[in-house]
Amino acid sequence: MTWPRGRMRAAVVAAPGRVELAELPIPEPLPGHALVRVDHVGVCGTDLELLHGTAAYVRDGRVRFPHVFGHEWSGTVVAAEGDPDGPAPGDRVVGQTMLACRSCANCQRGRRNLCLRLREVGLYGQQGAAAEYIRMPVDSLATLPPEVTSLDATLVEPAVTVVAALGTAGVGVGDRVAVVGTGTIGLLAVQLAARSGGHVHAVGVDPAGLELAAALGAETTYQPGAAPPDAYDVVVEASGAAAGFATALRLAATGGRVAAVGVPTEPVTGFDAGDLVLRGVTVYGIRHGLDHYGTTIRLLAEGALEAKPLIHAVLPLERAAEAFHLLEHGRNGAPKIILSLREGA
Ligand SMILES: [Zn+2]
Ligand SMILES: [Zn+2]
């Protein structure tokens, strides 16, 4: 199939605080790249930070406006200029968010997730997927099996980080696990920790979110103040709030492991380093799950991870501004808002 030329619909952050529709050129062919027609694109807290200008890459000038957001997406390959063994036209795919340079010191040591010259799709250095088409390096695409719908596949991107978090912290059979936060990351972590044989307790401030966590495998749920301290082998911090991080440390048992996935934008007040040392608590900062796309897609295909219960609303691309508003103000329980580029959506 030939690489289409011309213009395409897109949704952009036109300036901090403003989401608009735009018409942009379809990305040009580039060796080693594929052009993908986007089916669905999720919006998340990271996109809200872009919109509000609070993200580190907005503050340090790496983001230029108008900015095409969208890093949680699925689509269908329409043309590819590269690896004949890679994704072919017609293949349904998701794309990796982190595009590693492959040549810096960390990439050379096989630690692409710690690349020193990273670009992140839809965040900085690479146009995002809130558009009819996205151009991606062919080796940054992962093919979807028929069991995984394009809608559910938008959850692959957040889920790879959860797979990395639980793998790094090491959830074993019978482990007591607390998940702090009932957003997308938290609810995926509850599911995966329960399937890994852990006794999972969910901790959060949103009653509807806690109810959903219980339906997805949490044995008990708590408001943060009510959860038992010094009680959990593994704690997953998925709230992204500074207070959530403090809660996670408090809940970890002596010798426990904390996987910090949420990114607080403020320092943690009352952080007691001495307590951390004396109780031998290990904290892992989980940057991303770049190497877990294959595993995550398989978990979705097998039904070990469920995407559907997390989806709050699916809106057409034209309603992008409303999607951001809904993400910020209008939802309880199911956290995920998805934009659809499919006709008639
Ligand atoms: Zn995201
Ligand atoms: Zn690198």
Task: Provide structural commentary.
This protein has two domains: 7-151 and 307-340, Alpha-Beta Complex (Quinone Oxidoreductase, Chain A, domain 1); 159-285, NAD(P)-binding Rossmann-like Domain (Rossmann fold, 3-Layer(aba) Sandwich). 47% of the residues are buried. Strands 3, 5, 6, 10, 11, 18 and 19 form a seven-stranded mixed sheet that branches. Strands 14-13-12-15-16-17 form a six-stranded parallel sheet, sandwiched between helices. By secondary structure, the protein is of the alpha/beta class. The protein is globular and about 60 Å long. It is 25% helix and 30% strand. The structure holds zinc ion (2 copies). One zinc ion binds next to loops.
SS-derived structural category? alpha/beta
Alpha plus pi helix count: 10
Largest sheet composition: 7 strands, mixed
Mean pLDDT rating? 94
Keywords: Metal-binding, Oxidoreductase, Zinc
EC number: 1.1.1.329
Organism: Carbonactinospora thermoautotrophica
Pfam families: ADH_N, ADH_zinc_N
Short description:
This protein is of the alpha/beta class. The protein has 10 helices and 19 strands. It folds into 2 domains: 7-151 and 307-340, Alpha-Beta Complex (Quinone Oxidoreductase, Chain A, domain 1), CATH 3.90.180; 159-285, NAD(P)-binding Rossmann-like Domain (Rossmann fold), CATH 3.40.50.
Topology:
Blueprint: E1 7-15, E2 18-25, E3 33-43, H1 45-52, H2 56-59, E4 67-68, E5 72-81, E6 92-95, E7 98-99, H3 105-108, E8 119-121, E9 125-126, E10 133-137, E11 141-143, H4 156-169, E12 176-180, H5 184-195, E13 199-203, H6 207-215, E14 220-222, E15 232-237, H7 242-251, E16 252-260, H8 273-278, E17 282-285, H9 293-302, E18 311-316, H10 320-329, E19 336-340
Parallel strand pairs: 8-9, 12-13, 12-15, 13-14, 15-16, 16-17, 18-19
Antiparallel strand pairs: 1-2, 1-4, 3-5, 3-10, 3-19, 5-6, 6-11, 7-8
Bound molecules: zinc ion (2 copies).
Pfam families: ADH_N, ADH_zinc_N
Family: Belongs to the zinc-containing alcohol dehydrogenase family. DOIA dehydrogenase subfamily.
Domain Enoyl reductase (ER): 14-339
